[in-house]
């Protein structure tokens, strides 16, 4: 609404001598009704009692007048005496306005937000108390000055000026947010600004009004919440302690700190249980740090180095008290911490100048302190405060849980790896039938150690058992199951079971293990396995599979190909027999047994991986070890998703010059004949020193076969790494040791054989059984 000044003139007798149009609009009385009348006739009550002196004889206060239509009108009036020119009073000039106008002026002056008015040329017209406080100068020092002359020439102020001009030129209000330094407050503030045009009674733009609300607290609260959200997604992406600490540092710098460090207790980086936190000096390991300055100059402790925090330094207090501790320039603890840094790395003293605030927060997870985070501010103008301490503790607690999870995973991973390595063969036994190379790689994924295993088992008659298996799942339980199965395979192999029969017994064992552990599904602890037996005398390879990938075979001069064999069902399924496959191999053939981790990785296509594996196994190499390394390099990705076991063997053959065989008629007189023949064969081999024991063993075993066995009877001597004596007959009855009494005429033969040889045993064959004994060669 347009406003016209309300003015009245009253003479020294109290009569109205002048009456403006504004006065008519306020009271409804036209000038002709008022001029000449006593001014008191216009009052609706007594003169004001709250009148205040304004200087000289002037006063101001509130008057209540009677409107022409009868209602009361409260007006804020100012009464000023008029000089008649001769030293005498000529009357009084009275100006009036509704009380709300004065309140509006007071509201402008006393508003908590910064308010100001500019003319259309961006010069100050008015500035309230809050604006003057922010700028650090009184209003009189601003009035009439061009805005850019009152502030630094920085981008934030240039943007403010652009918006001022936009509103002055277009008349369109503008609302925006600005992050800038308040000159008088010595810190950055976040402002919510609104600019709008002012118009006079004719609608012409006359000025631009500004209101700026300091929403820094809300801004920093939003920033802290955003950092917590960022921490939730960026911290703990891996189960690696050091990497988790680095992720925490990356969240802190530069948004929350100019320099930050993470130091952890020694046991956190190992596999030990947490000890009681000592009350004296505690040694910590620097795990991560970051600075807003390139290359982090002046760092006192580098990654991998150790240090001790001592009270009253804030990090020491944070560790001891389990809470965030603030430190500011001048505090004793802050000075002690800074002096320790300067003493440890004096060359970094210039880079630490300007450090004015720090905060140390313990990393606590599940009631256990793991280490401490230290944040330092140099370029950030504001010191850390109580809100920062609350935020730092919340962030540190989240990061500590991630670090503790990584620590626990590393501990379990280390334990499982140690268990698995203790269950795997540390060194393969000596044998002459095969050249052997093996590789085992634990997976690097978060799933943990798996249950892959391999083994090479010497058997009787110079033969060798080969096994590669894979237990379902990962972790300690899988490793433990793997150990039980490996032991079971060795036990079953020791009784010389054929591959298909061995897998049948192993299948029963897995089923029983599942029942004992209460698994509803046997497949939960199922496994796959391939077992093979190679005989260097016959050059035959017999093998059977329980759901395991078929081995690769490389015959001399040919390409690699899969062994044609039935896959079989995995162990633990039960109900179906396993099928054995038998091959005759030329000497120098290469057989590759492996677990599915070698080809079933996620990063590649399975068929392509199979073809690549064939090419790699069939490649030429100087040795089996070199071939094994080449296979892994050609097939595996940088980070395998599963454990990998690879067993490479190259076959050898024992020729006729190292094997002697005699068919023995079932007559006692033949014992002397074969004993003599055995002695002659040892002489031909140059093993005369072994003749006495060998002839005795031959006599006892052949005698037992003639007396208790069935035809056909056969004697075989094998010169391998040991001297092997085998006697086969058509009976399936197994011999056993027994204690002979003083007057017994027999029963001491096998006991004598066991005492004279390195080891002995028996195995069933398709035609009956074979009893064998080994003795070391004289030159072994």
Strand order of the largest sheet: 2-1-6-5-4-3
Total count of strands: 32
Largest sheet features: 6 strands, antiparallel
Mean pLDDT: 85
Q: What's the helical proportion of residues?
A: 25-40%
The number of helical runs is: 18
Given as residue ranges, the uncertain stretches (5+ residues, pLDDT < 50) are 49-56, 740-746
| Global geometry | rod-shaped
Beta-strand content bin:
25-35%
Describe this structure in words.
Mean pLDDT is 85; it is low at 49-56 and 740-746. The chain has 780 residues and is an alpha+beta fold. Strand 3 (52-55) and strand 4 (58-66) form a beta hairpin. The chain has a 6-stranded antiparallel sheet. Helix 6 (216-234) runs parallel beside helix 11 (386-423) and helix 7 packs antiparallel against helix 11. It is built from 18 helices and 32 strands.
Please name the defining characteristics of this protein.
780 residues, alpha+beta, rod-shaped
Q: Concise description?
A:
The protein has 780 residues and is of the alpha+beta class. Helices cover 31% and strands 30% of the residues. It has 18 helices and 32 strands.
Can you lay out the helices and strands and say which pair or pack?
Elements: E1 6-10, E2 16-19, H1 21-27, H2 31-34, E3 52-55, E4 58-66, E5 72-83, E6 89-97, H3 99-110, E7 114-119, E8 124-127, H4 129-135, H5 155-170, E9 174-182, E10 187-199, E11 205-214, H6 216-234, H7 241-252, E12 259-265, E13 282-291, E14 306-309, H8 314-321, E15 325-328, H9 332-344, H10 349-352, E16 357-365, E17 368-377, H11 386-423, E18 434-441, E19 450-458, E20 464-474, H12 476-494, H13 499-516, E21 527-535, E22 540-546, E23 552-554, E24 561-562, E25 580-584, E26 590-594, H14 606-617, H15 624-635, E27 644-651, E28 659-664, H16 670-685, H17 691-708, E29 713-719, E30 722-729, H18 749-756, E31 759-765, E32 768-776
Antiparallel strand pairs: 1-2, 1-6, 3-4, 4-5, 5-6, 7-8, 7-11, 9-10, 10-11, 12-13, 12-17, 13-14, 15-16, 16-17, 18-27, 19-20, 20-21, 21-22, 22-25, 23-24, 23-26, 26-27, 28-29, 29-30, 30-32, 31-32
Helix pairs in contact: 6-7, 6-11, 7-11, 11-12, 12-13, 14-15, 16-17, 17-18
């Amino acid at each position: 609404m347009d406003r016209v000044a309300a003015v009245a003139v009253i003479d020294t007798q109290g009569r109205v001598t002048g009456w403006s149009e504004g006065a008519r609009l306020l009271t409804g009385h036209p000038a002709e009704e008022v001029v000449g009348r006593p001014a008191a006739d216009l009052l609706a009550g007594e003169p004001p009692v709250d009148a205040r002196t304004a200087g000289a004889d002037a006063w101001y206060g509130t008057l209540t007048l009677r409107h022409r239509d009868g209602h009361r009108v409260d007006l804020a009036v100012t009464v000023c005496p008029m000089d008649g020119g001769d030293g005498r009073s000529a009357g009084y000039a009275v100006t009036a306005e509704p009380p709300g106008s004065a309140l509006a002026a007071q509201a402008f002056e006393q508003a908590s937000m910064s308010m100001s008015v500019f003319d259309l040329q961006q010069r100050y017209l008015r500035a309230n108390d809050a604006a003057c406080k922010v700028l650090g100068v009184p209003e009189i020092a601003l009035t009439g000055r061009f805005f850019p002359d009152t502030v630094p020439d920085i981008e934030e102020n240039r943007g403010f000026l652009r918006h001022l001009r936009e509103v002055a030129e277009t008349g369109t209000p503008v609302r925006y947010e600005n992050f800038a330094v308040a000159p008088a407050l010595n810190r950055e503030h976040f402002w919510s600004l609104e600019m709008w045009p002012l118009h006079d009674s004719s609608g012409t733009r006359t000025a631009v009004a500004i209101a700026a609300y300091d929403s820094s607290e809300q801004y920093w609260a939003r920033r802290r919440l955003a950092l917590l959200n960022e921490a939730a997604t960026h911290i703990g992406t891996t189960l690696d302690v050091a990497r988790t600490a680095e992720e925490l540092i990356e969240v802190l710098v530069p948004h929350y700190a100019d320099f930050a460090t993470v130091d952890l207790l020694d046991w956190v980086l190992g596999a030990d249980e947490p000890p009681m936190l000592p009350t004296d000096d505690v040694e910590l390991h620097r795990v991560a740090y970051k600075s807003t300055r390139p290359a982090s100059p002046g760092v006192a402790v580098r990654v991998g180095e150790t240090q001790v925090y001592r009270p009253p330094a804030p990090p020491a207090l944070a560790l001891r008290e389990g809470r965030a501790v603030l430190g500011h320039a001048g505090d004793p603890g802050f000075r002690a911490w800074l002096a320790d840094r300067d003493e440890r790395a004096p060359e970094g003293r210039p880079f630490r100048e300007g450090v004015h605030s720090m905060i140390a927060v313990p990393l606590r997870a599940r009631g256990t302190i793991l280490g401490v985070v230290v944040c330092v501010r140099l370029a950030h103008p504001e010191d850390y405060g109580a809100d920062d301490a609350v935020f730092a503790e919340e962030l540190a607690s989240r990061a500590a849980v991630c670090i503790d999870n990584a620590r626990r995973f590393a501990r379990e991973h280390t334990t499982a790896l140690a268990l698995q390595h203790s269950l795997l063969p540390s060194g393969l036994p000596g044998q002459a039938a095969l050249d052997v190379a093996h590789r085992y790689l634990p997976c690097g994924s978060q799933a943990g150690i798996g249950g892959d295993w391999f083994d090479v088992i010497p058997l009787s008659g110079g033969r060798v058992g080969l096994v590669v298996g894979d237990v379902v799942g990962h972790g300690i339980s899988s490793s433990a199951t793997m150990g039980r199965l490996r032991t079971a395979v060795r036990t079953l192999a020791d009784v010389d079971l054929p591959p298909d029969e061995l897998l049948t017994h192993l299948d029963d064992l897995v089923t029983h293990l599942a029942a004992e552990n209460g698994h509803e599904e046997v497949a939960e602890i199922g496994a796959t396995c391939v077992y093979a037996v190679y005989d260097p005398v016959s050059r035959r390879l017999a093998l059977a599979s329980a759901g395991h990938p078929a081995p690769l075979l490389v015959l001399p001069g040919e390409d690699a190909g899969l062994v044609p064999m039935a896959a079989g069902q995995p162990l633990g399924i039960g109900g179906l027999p396993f099928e054995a496959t038998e091959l005759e191999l030329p000497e120098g053939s290469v057989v590759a047994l492996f677990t599915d981790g070698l080809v079933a990785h996620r990063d590649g296509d399975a068929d392509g991986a199979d073809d690549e594996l064939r090419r790699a196994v069939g490649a030429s190499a100087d040795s089996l070890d070199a071939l094994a390394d080449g296979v892994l390099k050609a097939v595996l990705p940088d980070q395998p998703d599963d454990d990998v076991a690879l067993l490479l063997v190259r076959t050898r053959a024992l020729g006729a010059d190292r094997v002697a065989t005699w068919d023995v008629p079932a007559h006692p007189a033949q014992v002397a004949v074969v004993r003599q023949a055995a002695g002659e064969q040892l002489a031909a081999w140059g093993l005369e020193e072994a003749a006495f024991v060998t002839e005795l063993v031959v006599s006892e075993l052949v005698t037992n076969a003639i007396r208790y066995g069935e035809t056909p009877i056969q004697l075989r001597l094998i010169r391998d790494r040991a001297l092997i004596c085998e006697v086969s007959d058509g009976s399936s009855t197994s011999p056993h040791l027994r204690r002979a009494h003083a007057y017994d005429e027999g029963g001491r033969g096998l006991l004598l054989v066991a005492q004279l040889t390195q080891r002995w045993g028996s195995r069933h064959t398709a035609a009956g059984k074979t009893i064998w004994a080994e003795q070391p060669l004289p030159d072994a």
